[in-house]
Amino acid sequence: MFLVVICGIVLVLVLGVLLLKKWPSRCVGREITHVKRGAMKPSPHIAECNEESCSADVDESDEYSEGELGVLKKNTSGGMGVVRRRHGHRGAVRTDIKRGENDSGAGHLRLSRLQKKKQEKEREREERQRALEALQEGRRVRQEEEREEQESREREEKERKELEEKALQELREEKKRREDEEYAKWVGAIGVEERGELGEEEQRRHDALIEYLKERARKIETRRQMLNRHTASGDHSENKPDVDGTASDDVKNILILAEVARKHDVTVDIAVKLIESLLKDGTISGVFDERGKFVLVAEEHYLKVAEFIQLRGRVSMKELVRECNRVIMS
User: Fold this and answer.
1) How far is residue 15's CA from residue 37's CA, in Å, rounded to a whole number?
2) What is the model's pTM?
């Protein structure tokens, strides 16, 4: 029986040695050493262990402390076994607390890393933003400088063109002035030679036009007297002979100024001036029309209108105009 107990103790010791070789000696060995000495505080070297390996080793050591080591302690000395089991349980609790602290520290470390990474990204973004703003500012400055240079070139080009145009205009005006002077000299020289002939021809045309107007007025006056004579004798034929043997329709008292001027080779203004001079002298009598005509009025026409007013007494403007047209066109 004693041999069996000895064999069991040896077997447990071998297993313990194997387990001690497998686990870190700094964590478990020193823990056991402190337990043997009766110290209840954990060794300060336990914090140096790795989080995963240390926690796992302590858990497994607790199991063996309560298991094989417990049997060993019970067989050897009952008091020491109880102390080791208590210390194993307290070591497990302290290991759990330490693991929680390590977990919180690791979480804080991970949080700090995330914050640092976020700060780095934010800083990089700000740097990129500043670089982009600097690039845009430089581009804007270059564009502004290019625009100012372009405006300056355009302004200089415009001023140059204006100066060239002004110089060309002065040259053209000077050339035209010299040509006008030469032309005036040439025309003056020709006019001195031909002034006599031109003055005589113009006077001849004027005299012809004046004679034509006087003759036309005399014919109208004679025709009007003959019409009155025929009316008094009771002859109402439409075509009555004129004094020169022509029909009465050929003698008209309405003159178209443009035709008269063209017929006598003068301008309309000259024809109007000659007619006005004859009206002022009393050589002829008549009125101008706004349509470019001149109506010759004989003395008999005035007498007929006066007779109409005396017979009617009081007449309207419309009746007077109608009677004047009838008398003149008859």
Assistant:
1) 23
2) 0.35
**How many C-alpha atoms does 324 have within 13 Å on its Cβ side?**
13
pLDDT 10s digits, 262-304: 888 888 888 888 888 888 888 888 888 888 888 888 777 778 8
Each domain of the chain, given as residue ranges in start order, spans 2-118, 203-297
Render pLDDT for 164-188 as a digit per residue (tens, 0 to 9).
999 889 988 988 888 888 777 766 6
Torsion from C-alpha of 316, 318, 320, 323, nearest 10 degrees: -140
Say how many residues make up the chain: 330
**Phi and psi, residue 265, nearest 5°:** 60, 45
Q: Are residues 188 and 256 in contact, defined by beta-carbon separation less than 8 angstroms?
A: no
**Cβ-defined contacts of 316-320 (< 8 Å, 24+):** none
Topology of the domain comprising 203-297: Arc Repressor Mutant, subunit A (1.10.10)
Q: Compute the Cα dihedral for 233, 236, 242, 246 and give only its sign.
A: negative
